[in-house]
Every structure is written in C-alpha cells, then in structure tokens.
Amino acid sequence: MINRILLTLFLPISLIAQVPNYSEDIAPIIYDHCLKCHYSGGIGPINLETYANTVANSGMIQHVTSSGEMPPWPPDTLYRSYAYENILNIDEINTILDWITNGSPLGDTSLLPTMPTFSNSSQLGVADLEMQIPTYSSTAGPGNDDYVCFSIPSYLTQNRQIRAIEVIPGNIQIVHHVIVSLDPFPNNSVVTTPNCMGPQGGTIYTWAPGSVPLVFPENQNNSFGVNLPANSSLSLAMHYPEGSFGQIDSTKVKIYFYPQNTTIREITSDYLINEGLFGQPFILPPNQVTEITGTYGPTAQDYSFMSVFPHMHLLGKYIEMYAVTPANDTINLVRINNWDFEWQGAYLFEKFIKIPAGSVIYANGTYDNTPSPANPNPVTVQSGLNTQDEMFVGIFQFLPYQTGDEDILLGDVVIPTNFNTINTSSSNKRLINVTDIRGGAVESKKNTPLIYIYDNGTVEKKIIID
Ligand code: HEC
Fold it and tell me: Is the pLDDT of residue 81 over 90?
C-alpha cells in the first residue's frame, strides 16, 4: 500500500522532469534529419533553422513525422537497412509529439548543438573531369513536372576508372533528383531528350537533396570503381518539380579518376529485373490494379551486390525484390510499400551482400490504374521509356564475389583530406589536342570556349581571356 502511494506521488514529478525542450531534444533531431533540405534556400518549402520557425510549423511537423512522410525515406526499414538511411526512430517521433503537447518549450539555448551548414559547394574538391548541362529553363508548370535527360560527351581519349562521383545541383531549389548513367553512344555535343524519366544506360549514381558523393571503397587489396570508356558520354536524367516553370538550372557532375593504370575491381550496373524494357512487355488496363512479377537467374557465379535501384513510373504503388539462394535462404534486397516516383533512388547496402551462384532474384510490383486526382481518366498504359509509359526494373550495381567482400563497408567512406591532390592525373599531363565545343579541330584561340584534351585522357573546357 505504501509503495503504491509513493508511486502515484512520484510518477507525475518524474514525467514533468522529462518534458522535452527544443535546445536539448528537438534541435538535434531537426539538425540531423531535416535541415539538409529545410535550410534557407534548400528544396524543402519551409525553413526549419530556428526555434521560431519550428514552433510555427509544429503541427505540420508532428503530422509528417508521425505519418512517416518526413524525412523522405521510401524503403521499408524492417525489410532491409542501407547506408545513409535517413529515418526517425519511434523515440524521436514521440519526443516531437511530447514536446508539442507540452507547449514547445525552448529550454536552455546554451545547450543547443552547433547548427550544420549546407550549400551546393563540392565536398571532394577539384575534379579530374567536370560535365555540366547547358543552362536550362524548367518547363514544369502547375500540375506537371519536367523530366529531361542530357547526354554530355566526355571527350575522353582513353579509358579511365572512376574513383568517386559528385553531383553539384545548379539550382538547389528546383533540382529534385538526378540519375547519372553511362550513355554507351558517343556524342559530339550535348543531346537533350525531353520527356525522359530514367537512366539512359548503366546507372552509376543517383542524387537527391542531401545526398553524399559516391566514393567507391578502397582498401589494401581492392580498388573498386567504374570504367569510363574513351569517347563515352554521361547522361544526367533531371527531375524539376511542379511549379518550377521558368527557373534556370545548370547542374554539373564531377568525376574523380584513379591514377592511370590502376587495376580496379570493376563494378557493373545492370538491369537484372527488366520487364517491358528489354524483357517481357506488359500492359496495365484502365480501372484496375495490376500485379507484375519478374525474375532473374539462376546466377552464374557468386556476386557481391553493392546497391539496388528499383524504378517504376507514376502508377507504381509497391515494389519488392529479394534473392533466394540454392540453400533456400531468402536475402531481402528492397521493399517499398508506398512507391513515390518523386522520391526514388539507388540504395547503397551497408556492406557488399554476397549472392551465391545459383540464386534467383524475384521482383513483385503493383500498379494502380484506377481513377485518382492525378489520373482522372485512366487509359491503357504500356511498358516503355516515356513519361506516359510504365517501367518495372531493378538496376543493380554488383561484381564477381571475392572472399571478404561482405565485410567491406560501403557507406560512411571517409574522404581523405588530400583527396584531390592524390589524383596524379592533373600533375603531369601533356596537351595533345584542342577542339571547339562541337569536337572540330581548331588552333588555340583566345576569348573562345575550347576543349583541351590531355594525354592522360582528361579534358578541360576553358576560355583563355586576353
Ligand atoms: C531529402 C529532403 C528532405 C528532408 C531530409 C526532409 N524534408 Fe520535409 N520536405 C521536403 C520537400 C521537398 C517537401 C515538399 C513536399 C514534397 O515534395 O514531398 C517537404 C515538405 C515538408 C513539410 C510540409 C510543408 C508544407 O508546406 O506542406 C513539412 C512539415 C516537413 N517537410 C518537415 C520535415 C521534417 C520535420 C523533416 C525532418 C524530420 C523533414 N521535413 C526532412 C524535403 C525534405
């Protein structure tokens, strides 16, 4: 009896003591999980840098965090975790709720953590190759987004091996995502493809607001990377959201090479699940939900899987991919319970995943072609590449397995402070050719943009001003 009285007396006191405050409890959550998009000038529509702004939007914050809408992280984390996962755990969601229901106290501001800063400047420094889309004005009006691809020639004269890649959005307020892929067709100038939603070849990297650059892992015995063949082009599939009409962008991609003649373990990117694209075509009749399945395998050898990039268009609702090994073990790869085209991307596994020889990859997808505000008059939709078509693909980055791969961390790669200086390519190169921007041979001229091609395969576009 005495015990029970003590409990009822002390319980409310201990609860009051635990009321979360902004400085100690809320700011750390917002700084870590939200600011990368919700800083002033970022892509998020509200700025959450200050206490006042956080309080002013607290109702909405509570709503979007408890519904799981924010931070945007589509994969089902109970199915599989990834590197650079941005999610709130249940304690953090409850802390936000507790804080709001207790009047959103500020707390002691001397205990505020240091506010992180974000910008669109490079984290990796001077690159070996920079490719930039031409200045582009978004065509996304009210009610429609702009999806456009730019294939940019590399002008490389030799094969090089990519060690790292970084996307620098030109206009951080309107670049919603960028898919960088290797365009196998050589171009002499930039090729612009409107109405283009996906990669135009093997995917190397996907960028969304808050993404970190991709630095391939490297250790004593292994240098992982991707080959960039001579004369190849890189394609940037851009997504500018609704309402960005008339705003200007000029996004660039920065490429860092390994020193020449480095033996790399080459990472391949391939459409292992490719229904409709190079595989079985499919149709989605109007006014119904349709399920599509795909398989790949059995795999010919042991592989190390690095990332998975599930891709559907606007009618996609659900997608799941997993491997089943010859020993009948299931290896979960990705599951997205509420597919949202706006928030797609490649997901980097925490470590390489070993997929043993003889495994089969299974994929299940659901498409909803019933009437909705976004699709008021459904029509038959076919598989294809255009925005009005649908896709069902799973793009994987992988390579032949070697013992120990499954212990190699893929995320949180520490960028060496001397990262750009250890690239030997810029130090002892010799100019071998100068061309105009269309690739035609010219003499070096002043006050004109020209392409300078060096013997180590690197290229610079520059204007020598007199
Ligand atoms: C990867 C970028 C990104 C991150 C991280 C992010 N947001 Fe957002 N947020 C957006 C974008 C973009 C929108 C606009 C709606 C949309 O596109 O879904 C948005 C919308 C919102 C809205 C609705 C605003 C409105 O006017 O409708 C709220 C509230 C919000 N975010 C809060 C948060 C909180 C809280 C966090 C952290 C827990 C967070 N967001 C993390 C990008 C982000």
Answer: yes
